[in-house]
Amino acid sequence: MDDNSVYRSLFFEESDDNLQQLNDNVLELESEPDNMDLVNEIFRAAHTLKGMAATMGYDVMTKLTHKMENLFDFFKSGKLKVNSDYISLIFRCLDRLSQLVEDLRDEKELSQDQISDLLEELEKVEESVNGSDQAAKTPEEEQDTGALTNVFEHLEEADLDVIHQAITGDYKAYSIAIRIDKESLLKGPRVFLIMEKLEQEGDVLHTEPSVDILEDGDFDTDFRLVYLTRDDLDMVKHNVESNSEIDEIIVEPFDEEKQQAGEKQQAEAPKTVEKQKAQQKQTPVKAAAKAKPKTTKNNKTSAAHQHANARNQSIRVDLTRLDRFLNLVSELVVYRNQLDDASMRNNADAMRDALEQVSRLTSELQDLVLKIRMQQVSVVFSRFPRMVRDLAKELNKEMELVVEGEETELDKTVVSELSEPLIHLLRNSSDHGIEAPDIREKEGKDRKGTIKLSAYQEGNRVIITLEDDGKGLDPAVIKESAESKGINTEGMSDDEIKKLIFHPGFSTAKEITNISGRGVGLDAVQAKISELGGSLEMKSELHVGTKFIIKLPLTLSIIQALMVRIGNESFAVPLDVVERVVMLKENEIVKTTNQEVYRFQEGLIPIIRTDRLLQIEPDPNKKKFAIIVKIDQKYYGILADELIGQQEIVIKKIDPMLQKINKYQGATIFGNGSIALILDVNAICNEKKGTE
Amino acid sequence: MQMILFKMNQQYYLISAASVEEVIDTVRITRVPLAPNWVKGLINLRGTVMTVIGLSELIGVPSSKNNRNILIMKKDEERKGLLIEEVVEVVDIDKKDIQLEKTDKEKHYLGVVSLENKVANVVDVNHLIF
């Protein structure tokens, strides 16, 4: 029912996109100030943004965008050279605009005060370019369409009757004439918004041209209406003026004599038909107006509710994927019908055939649904270059963010939760990691620090690494800091001391900056990552840099697995890490001084005896199989007594207490109801590597 | 308050019914290698994988051979199974009937209750398993 809310959510989505694009482009512009294509692109995005804000009647936002657009116009016409001051100003405008959009999302009213400082700055820039000739231009343009009039051309007797009745009651009748700004691109919606505003407080009785024509925007700039309301003249005027893109208005109490004088030359039109028509047109508008939550006054709860929904509801899906989905579903319908038919005829063969197809389609659909839920990490990454630039300015450091693999896909829920921990790590690297340029130079490093953010898929996980070439963690400093905070570091190795940065309430920065916060930090990052089912590792070397490695599950629930038996017990091994399975005899396992290895391809790979590892009684009569897995570019052979087969399994979470054993990713339930544990091959192999 | 009376290795125990969501017959338990000894393994409870804990191992009493029931314990949104020998009945116990109230040493014993022809230990293990 609420038409506006549809526009609103669309507006937010598109504004976010446009602002992001502007941010990206402006950042690029800073490094290529002479790229005119870029300026044009920026100009277009800014213009779209302005248009949308204006359509929604968000004046404050429109004003700021408009002024900012002027700046781009100067770049375009060459009146102004792009420099870092202007870029910073634009960035501040963009930030403010993002803030405005956020406020609107939270149903807050915008005020002029929010942008006055920026407007002033922008105006100064404008003045410096072309003095005041711009201001002189506008008024003269306005005079060319003739005077606005509020005399109606064909008002019917029935309408007059209603007006009479209304006036004798509490109501007052006004004749209103409105001239829409002739620059307005969307006259129709503008009229709709004005009408809606008016209908909240009264009734629009008659319009000229008719409502249909007005809402289609099929008129010049002027329109007139008769309005019945209890409000006084100033209030009505205010209500009309609260809409944007209005050039001029006349609001007067309805004057029948003046009206009749103006009407004399008009021929009498057929009445009743028109009247009915008018009513029909009115009703839906009124209904819509009534259903609309009056966000400014009451219905706060419903608005807040809608708002909560709007934020987390939608996902953008590649159209080809959606088309494939539709194809698969229609195929499924075909086979369902075949099944129906075959079961009616009791034809077992036909049924089997159809079932086969259905099972194929189910798995394809399942695959596709997972893919539809996937989102590129660029959704999160795209805002970071801008962030690092600002951080560099703020910290007086020189640094650059290199982003790799931003097309890597992850489940949407994971992606949307990812930005917070990553921002935190980035800030940490910028603030604590990268040194000041002079210090870097002294140490023989490039003045400009590099932070590298990369994402790639490995097996059924996505690995995100964040690496800086900064000063790295100094165990001595951490130790001192930890002790001053009352953390006991006695007998700790350097590695253990480095891990203290994940300790709640720990911060290594000598002074607290507003960038990496007050030590509410890495522990929160770690908590967030494990909440997402992932893990966080850190490698750091003094004066060389720090690297954070985040491993996240690709999808949250379904994987392909190889089912194996060890002793009498069944286990699942995620198939994506499995390179190959080989049968081997006991004498092919070679004992070295501290481990057992197996000759695979040209090298020797470590063998992991799962029965010993898990303390399972081995079955000496069974043949041995080695499941060759590849972890971190290295091969390992995992021994199993028997292969059961390959199967698609649903990962079920297990008790945190059992997760602590660090051998199982989860459990799964078979078709017959029995349970098997899923081996955490990554953890098992990493542990093996640790003991080498 | 309502309590569940159950048997384990010829001894009787009482546990508050408020912490028990349901009682099921023992189903197949899948062992979890390397888990603590009081974790009996995992069961499939209507499609959910649930950890089952052996009460006898948990509170350190001799275990019985034949365990017929699992109490499904709940705390907020978490569920865990508690393996016992057999549920006898649900009884109403007045709080003041609980004698020999717990000492600080034995946190899972709340005391004992004397019933018609037997004496039952009142246990509370929620703080141990959740």
TrEMBL record, chain A:
<feature type="domain" description="Histidine kinase">
    <location>
        <begin position="310"/>
        <end position="556"/>
    </location>
</feature>
<dbReference type="InterPro" id="IPR004105">
    <property type="entry name" value="CheA-like_dim"/>
</dbReference>
<dbReference type="GO" id="GO:0006935">
    <property type="term" value="P:chemotaxis"/>
</dbReference>
<dbReference type="InterPro" id="IPR037006">
    <property type="entry name" value="CheA-like_homodim_sf"/>
</dbReference>
<dbReference type="Pfam" id="PF02518">
    <property type="entry name" value="HATPase_c"/>
</dbReference>
<dbReference type="InterPro" id="IPR036061">
    <property type="entry name" value="CheW-like_dom_sf"/>
</dbReference>
<keyword id="KW-0418">Kinase</keyword>
<dbReference type="InterPro" id="IPR008207">
    <property type="entry name" value="Sig_transdc_His_kin_Hpt_dom"/>
</dbReference>
<dbReference type="InterPro" id="IPR005467">
    <property type="entry name" value="His_kinase_dom"/>
</dbReference>
<dbReference type="Pfam" id="PF01584">
    <property type="entry name" value="CheW"/>
</dbReference>
<keyword id="KW-0145">Chemotaxis</keyword>
<keyword id="KW-0597">Phosphoprotein</keyword>
<dbReference type="InterPro" id="IPR035891">
    <property type="entry name" value="CheY-binding_CheA"/>
</dbReference>
<dbReference type="InterPro" id="IPR010808">
    <property type="entry name" value="CheA_P2-bd"/>
</dbReference>
<dbReference type="InterPro" id="IPR037052">
    <property type="entry name" value="CheA-like_P2_sf"/>
</dbReference>
<keyword id="KW-0067">ATP-binding</keyword>
<feature type="coiled-coil region">
    <location>
        <begin position="94"/>
        <end position="135"/>
    </location>
</feature>
<keyword id="KW-0902">Two-component regulatory system</keyword>
<keyword id="KW-0808">Transferase</keyword>
<dbReference type="InterPro" id="IPR036097">
    <property type="entry name" value="HisK_dim/P_sf"/>
</dbReference>
<feature type="region of interest" description="Disordered">
    <location>
        <begin position="257"/>
        <end position="312"/>
    </location>
</feature>
<dbReference type="GO" id="GO:0005737">
    <property type="term" value="C:cytoplasm"/>
</dbReference>
TrEMBL record, chain B:
<dbReference type="InterPro" id="IPR036061">
    <property type="entry name" value="CheW-like_dom_sf"/>
</dbReference>
<feature type="domain" description="CheW-like">
    <location>
        <begin position="1"/>
        <end position="130"/>
    </location>
</feature>
<dbReference type="GO" id="GO:0006935">
    <property type="term" value="P:chemotaxis"/>
</dbReference>
<dbReference type="InterPro" id="IPR002545">
    <property type="entry name" value="CheW-lke_dom"/>
</dbReference>
<dbReference type="GO" id="GO:0005829">
    <property type="term" value="C:cytosol"/>
</dbReference>
<dbReference type="InterPro" id="IPR039315">
    <property type="entry name" value="CheW"/>
</dbReference>
<protein>
    <submittedName>
        <fullName>Purine-binding chemotaxis protein CheW</fullName>
    </submittedName>
</protein>
<dbReference type="Pfam" id="PF01584">
    <property type="entry name" value="CheW"/>
</dbReference>
<dbReference type="GO" id="GO:0007165">
    <property type="term" value="P:signal transduction"/>
</dbReference>
